[in-house]
Structures are given as C-alpha cells and as structure tokens.
Specification:
There is one protein chain. By secondary structure, the protein is of the alpha/beta class. It has a single domain, classed as Spore Coat Polysaccharide Biosynthesis Protein SpsA, Chain A. The chain has nine helices and nine strands.
Length: about 250
Amino acid sequence: MNKDTLYVVLPCYNEEDNIENLIKAWNMEERKLFEKGLLLKFVIVDDGSGDNTLNIAERLKKSYSNITILKHKENKGLGEAINTGISYAVSQEEKGYLCIMDSDMTHEPYYIFSMVNKLKKEKLHCVIASRYRKGSKIEGLSLYRKLLSYGARIVYTLTLRIPNVRDYTCGYRLYTLESLRTLSEKHGGKLVAEKGFACMMELLVRINNEGFKIAEVPFVLKYQLKGGASKMNVWRTVSRSLILLARL
C-alpha cells in the first residue's frame, strides 16, 4: 500500500526543555501511524533560539532519519516559522498531510489519530484540535488566562463566523498538503503576514476564504506539562488580533 506523508512542523524558539521529549513522544506513535498508511516526517524550524534548542535538534537528527531542520539566524516570530515550515513541506511534491503544533509539550501527539480520522471520513481540508468542544478541557492555566481566552473566542466567533469553528487560535491543526499548496501558490509562498501568534487566526481565515472545509475535534490542553516560560505576550497578541480582525 502506498503511504501518504504526515509532516509535523514544529516551530521552535527556546524550546530546549521540550523538543527532545516531544520528538520521542511522536516517534512512539510512528508504528501506529505507519499501520494507518502514514509516513511520519518532522520539520523542525528553529526560529533564532538563544538556548540549546538547535544543538538538541541536530543531535536528534543523528538518531532519527525522519527529521529535517530549518534555521532562522534571528528570531522572526511564529508566523515566519510557519511560513518556512509549510513552504518546505509543500515543495517536496508528496501526497498527504501537514500538522502544526506548539513545541512546548502542551499538545499531545496522540490526538493526531482522531484528527486524521475526522479529516478522511468527512473529506475535510483542515481539522483543529479544539479547546471548546464537548470533551475538551484546559488544564494548568490561570483563571485570568482562561477568561481572556474565552472572551477572545467570543469576539472571533461573532466577527469571523467560520462554519464549524469555535477555536480560532489553537496552534494544533492538521491540513491537507494539497490545500496548503493551493494557498502557497496564491500567496507567493507566504501564507501568513502576521509575525506573532495572531498568524494562526490569519491562516484559518485564508483556508476558509478559499472554500476549504474545516472542522474540529476535542482535545485537552495540558499547560502544566509546559517546560520553560511562555513565549506569548498576551496583550500584544490580543491587540494584533483585533487589528487583524479589522483588516479581514
């Protein structure tokens, strides 16, 4: 049976506490993915890390043949890291899927199976691991951050009204390579213009505007598993998101 490729794009900025454990967690699922017709490949995008992330990634590459490392000499932001990772994957002319996730251990790899199953069964182009579906849960996050997240979700939902979407900003998503190639060609290889975390909403809007089908699966965000400090400036992300909403 011919296998489809599953690219896992991991944007990394100072993730020395997490990247090795995350790669190992994914590779524990490799056999099961293979049995389901998927070849697992990693694209680690080091976004100008100032810690030991790149050295750890290069050491892991010596042990695992399914790792590609892409480097930014300086920190360019999540949006540019995503552009770099997607551009590489779609240029390989392979059939299959691309998963983007946070590299801080808060997104567990085994949810990929429910995401792939839903995408195939419903012939979708994008599946979001959603924090706001029945069965979803947010663990380890302060009440303040939870309230801010819920408030932002309401604003995004009322403004954008993308069918079947409740979680506009979660970084854990699965896309078809075909849909990303279409977007990449249309936008000259630069799928998002936003440099910060608001890029996730921007990419979702572009997927929807192209007429691609989107749905969600529930997942549990385990913030307590996060190693190292948060890279997100909450108020900067909120302000950039509001500016983006006004522009869309």
